[in-house]
Amino acid sequence: MTGGRHGYGAKLSNIFSKTFTIDTVDSKRRLRYTQTWNNNMTQAGEPRITKLDNGSKSNGTKVKDYTCITFVPDMQRLSEDPNVTSIDEQDYAVMCRRVVDAAGCAGESCKCI
Q1: Which sequence spans correspond to the domains of the chain?
Q2: Around Cβ 25, how many Cβ atoms within 10 Å?
Q3: What is the percentage of the chain residues whose pLDDT exceeds 70?
Q4: What is the residue range of the signal peptide feature (predicted)?
Q5: What is the CATH number that goes with domain 8-106?
Q6: Which of 1, 51, 55, 105 is 20 to 30 A off residue 65, Cα-Cα?
Q7: What b-and-e string marks burial along 51-85, b requiring 16 or more CB atoms within 10 Å of the CB?
């Protein structure tokens, strides 16, 4: 794996996923955007843009910017073996390492879960 530019990684992750969801918050404009795609990006759900209530959560703390991407890889497209149903340990370790590397570049405010 290599680092990317111009959003190719996100788009390719979407294309090779059964389900792909983005959830992001812009605290300056107090907006939240969420959208889900299914079946290798062939079915796009309606984007939802919601206004955040005064830029704060219900417990009174300030809303912070974030972007959360969740996806379910389409293993049949990613493997030559049609019986593969999960990512092997080596590929999983590479993905975990990329998350750690990205978090290191993003700084203290980045939280990986």
Answers
A1: 8-106
A2: 20
A3: 84
A4: none
A5: 3.30.565.10
A6: 1
A7: eeeeeeeeeeeebeeeeeeebebbbeeebeeeeee
